[in-house]
Each structure stands twice: as C-alpha cells, then as structure tokens.
Specification:
With 609 residues, the chain is α+β, with helices and mostly antiparallel strands. 29% of the residues lie in helices and 20% in strands. One of its GO terms (cellular component) is alpha DNA polymerase:primase complex.
Amino acid sequence: MEEELKQQFDEMGVEPADSVLGRCAELAITYNIHDATEFVEQWMAFSLSHLHGEDPAIENLGDFERKVLQLRKDKACSKTTGQTVKSYGSPSVQDTNSLVTYGVMEDDRMLDDYVSESAVDSSALHTPKAKKESVRSSNLKGGVLFSPASYTPQSAKRKAGLETPSNSVAGKPGDIVDTFGHPKLLAGSSWQSQMEHTVPVTQKLLHNEASLTIANLGYMNDLLTDRCHNLRVRFDQTGPALVDKKLGQAGAAECIWYPQDRQVLQSAGGLHALGMIHSEDDGPLDAHSAFMAVLDDDIEDEMDPTLTLNFSRVKSASIFPGQVVLAKGFIPRGKTFMVEEIHTERKLTPATPLQIDRELQFVVASGPFTDSTDLFYEPLHDLLKYLKDHRPDVLVLTGPFLDADHKMVGELAETFDTFFEKMIGGIMEAIGSHTAVLVVTSQKDAMALSVYPTPPPTLRRTYPNLYMLPDPSLVDLDGLTLGVTSTDVVDHLLSHEFAVNAGERMHRAINHLFHQGSFYPLYPPADEDMAYDSQLALKYAQLKQLPNVLILPSDQRHFVRLVNDCLVINPGRVADKKGGTFARFLVAPSVPGKPANMFNSVACQVQRI
C-alpha cells in the first residue's frame, strides 16, 4: 500500500517522508480505503480546503483523520442503521469519498446528492432527497436557435407518446462536482480569459504530412489480408518495446526461441510469450475465453500460432482484445500457457514540455447536446450562456451533435448537413471571434461518415476561429499539445477487459492507450456498430507521444486524472438524465524554481450545466 500511495503522491507533485507514508497506509487500512488514488484524492481535498495546499505530515494527518475519515465513517454508519441491503453496482458510502475530488470535504449536500443519484435504481444505502428540477434559461433569440426548421414540439411529443420532460437531477446548475490542480491556481482563478489573444491551432496527427479529411479519405476497402497486415504492424511497433522495457536490450538479445513454440522466448528469468490478446467469442474477456495469437512470419502455415492462457497463478493482470502483451510463465503441456505475470508497459515518449508564455483558459463539452426526448438543445443554450459570460481562449466540442439514433431525428424536414451547419452558425454567432473553437464530430452523428477514424464534415461557410477536426486529433495550441477523441474508448476498454488486482479503473484504462500507442487499441471494436477501418487507424489513430492534455469523453462518470504527467479529462455529457456537465481548465506558464510538471501548471473543474 505504501508504494501505491507514494506513486499517487508523486503524480500530484508531493513527496512525503517514509514515516508519513506509513501513517497514511495505516489510516487507509483502518478506514477500509483500498484504493491509493482514493486516499490521495481525499487528502488533496482536505489540504486544499483547510491547509492551503500543505503537504501531508504526521501532525496534520491527525486533523485529516478526525475531520474527514472519522466523520465519513460516522455518517456511513448513521445512514445505514437498520438497513440490511444487498446492492449490486451502486457505490458504497465510502466509495463516494473520492467523488467530491479536491472540493470542500464537509459539503454534505453534494455528497448526499451523489449518493441519492447513484442509489436510485438499487434503493440501497440512502433514501433519495427530493430532486431538483433543472431550470433552463437562455437569452438567445427565444430559445429556438438550434431547433429544426420543421420540428413541431407538440406533435413530436404526441407521436413519441411523451409528456413534458422532467429533467430531475441531483444538484443545481453551476455546482462544481470535480476539481483537480494546484491549490494556488484554483484559488486565484476567475475562470475568465484575461486578454484577447489569438491561439494558433496546428494539426499534429498526420500521414504523409496531411491530416484526415474527406478529400484524402479512402475506406470501405479494408480487406482481411490488409487487416492482418495492419495488426502485424501494430505488433511489431509495440512488442519489441515491451521486451525492451521488461528484459532490457541485453536481456532481449540473450533470449532464444523456445524449440516447440517459436513465439515463446526462453531467458534466464523463465519463459516469455509475446503476442496479441484475443477472445474466443470476440466479446468481453474473462479468465476462460482469452488466448494469445502470435504473429511470426517464420511459423509454418500448418502450425497453430496461438496459446491458450491459464490465469490460475496470476496475481495481477489487466488485458483486453487486441492488446499486445509480454506474458511470463511456463507450458505444462500442449498449447496451454500458465501465466504467472503479464507485462503491458513500455518506455513512453513523454509530452513536449509546456512552452506557453501566458495563461490559457479552456472549456471542454461533449455531446449529446440535447435531451433524448426533444430537439430543443436547451443544454447547449445553457452552455453558450456560460461561454458568453466567461469568454475562454479555447472551446473544445465533441460529438455527437445530431445523434443518428435520436428518436426525433426522423422529424427533420431539412438535411442533416443543413441542420448541423445551422447549429455551428448559431454557436459561432453566440461566441464571437475571441475564442478558438475546436469541433470533433462523432461517427454517431447523422451527418458524419460512419467510419473510424472519422473525417470532419465540410461546411459551406468558414469562420476564422473555427477548426473542424477529425476523430481522433492531436493539435498544438500555442505550445500545448492537446489530444481529443469523441469515441468512448474508456467505456469500451472497461467493458471488455479482464482485470485482476489491477488498480484504479480509469487510471489503467488511460495507461492502456499510452502503452499500446493508440487512441483505440481494441480489436475487434467493442461496439459492433463501429465501422473500424484498420488502415485508417494505422495512419490517423496512433498515439506515439504523450500529449500534455487528453480529452476522453465517456458515458462513465466524469473524471480528472494526471497520468504520466498528462492531464486526462472526461467532461461528462452536456445532456444527461442525471445532470449534464462540462469541464473547464487553465494552463499557466511554469514558475521558475518549481518542478516543470503539469500539476504545478494546471487547474481543472467539472461543472454542472
């Protein structure tokens, strides 16, 4: 536990003494906190709220125990008195500790609202409070800026058999539901751009010096032989790096091929098998469905280049279909490989150090932007009202903007392209020319090409501060490298992985992207409706170098993480039945005399719409 705590504190730029780490481990065990990330998040919240960001010490850990850990333990006991409930899938009261990340730890209202929200379906742990109805307001031309030309609300609702929607959510608009960053930056920020400044935007995810566009797009010819070749290329790029990380160049050079199975390396440390993970039924992995395919040109055609994996001896593992891994173990008989260790990490190319010379303000919002029962786009109106008041330097919007699966999409009497252009025009009119607007559509959008990677749609009208980007994208913003995708790769990874004692879920999902060097490393795709093109992915979905900031919108609960000195943000969805959210963050120039890392340079908050 101490090593895990040390790692998490290191990522926050904190270096506690060994005695302090020992005391932290004791507290974590005493109060049943088994996740080091959760414990560190609770400490950072307390430190920010009560100690002005001080590092942990034996003295202030006593206050932390009394004001946070013991208090929450008492609340958990009082709320569950007299209730014997068996709940599946809902977080316990203790689990909610990490949800008010870095916020005011004694804000009972926010904690209670989250417990209410997460326990509605299971009726466990907590009696929900009376929900508040979201009050939406807009001063944008009567609130019809984004409504389709032929959309009749009354008739549409009658056809769908719906009454007036009730957007009951926990909390109220403007609530801060997640916070991360340096305490001084958080305390001193007005979340408004201090001066007008044009932010240059440069695409970095290129093939033959060109980004993905409809003009240079060729798809629907992804042959089986091409897919096999592209998987081999991925294997060749990742496999040797895994061997080098684990065994070193000298150790890898001394490895010899195991005589019966050329895919298995035999070294002084035992047998190491290098290959790609697959599922027997092309679905989610479990302990019995995973096997390893080995891509070796020297294996004769009649040989079966696969190993059945047995995980009965493994202590820790996290694997998913399409992942290149280095497995250590032995072969008792036939083609069964007894796995003792799974190695998935390689040496990463760190992000380019920040080169900004002034503070930059960002807002990130992810679709859908309208409720599932109408096409009024009221959540988008509310977001634009915030943007008009705060005027950030950069706005990042990810799709879907017009979900092809929306039940009202058939009510449109105009083309999807026309409706989307009208929406973009309304956004740009509301925002003005001060903010650089980055738009990443989704293959789920009705007007987008149904292929991944997805090129941006073309617009008849251009705007000097609007940048239509493909999914995924990697861009340089005045000295900051930003990666962004609209595909829910986090949910896809977590739903299809097999994990045993593998640490915090979001942290390991993000690390999968980094160590596999891809914005979408799963194969086959987790979504059967996803038109994945392996040739395009090889050209336009690789993640060879870490960005400074990575945007990963997901149906998973919003989060902010610092992983390998990369700030990773899931802003949540703007339109969500449990309450829409968006993220705002700022990046400041490095302070002379302090370590040049992201923790000392960023502040981030997730805010409710």
